[in-house]
């Protein structure tokens, strides 16, 4: 089955609606589905719940959806240096469900695996556990967390074949493969589409069964969120 589509507009055709939940891959500015985010911004859908590690950085990524007031709620683990994110949350304009990063990753993985809930020590005795069941296992307290699932997952991969098998490059892998399993529909933007049979099966990070549509990304800026440097030591 050829799952390729020619552009972002067709990749998201009939998938967007007000009030939907979207998973968006990436970690900081690495592995962000930039092209699909821009298309969602242009469509003007509103009251979105976005599940993402963070909300981009000033002027880039999911920040554009915050600026246009299209996001109602963020489920994430890092506010970071996104001043707009901080301002909207502190003013009460934006709902925030803050998760420990490992818990966020596991909630997404559980959603893809069909596991409604699990227990973790992370967050016990903190505000993270407020309102959640806590049980004792082998003398230790664990807080119950629930799965995360979405109407749509948008992910960024390095390469794909027409069947939707995906390969990610280095740290751009991050949340992308897990999110691809946890949504009703997954759309992938990639830097390159290769012929069927190119991939060694052992090198496929996300099998095509989890991917519904694939398109070539037109935005591949790969910005560095914060550049840090040091003097090179003499050899």
UniProtKB/TrEMBL annotation:
This is 3-oxoacid CoA-transferase subunit A. Keywords: Transferase. InterPro entries: 3-oxoacid_CoA-transf_A (IPR012792), CoA_trans_fam_I (IPR004165), NagB/RpiA_transferase-like (IPR037171). The keyword Nuclease does not apply. Gene3D superfamilies: Glutaconate Coenzyme A-transferase. GO terms for molecular function: CoA-transferase activity. Pfam families: CoA_trans.
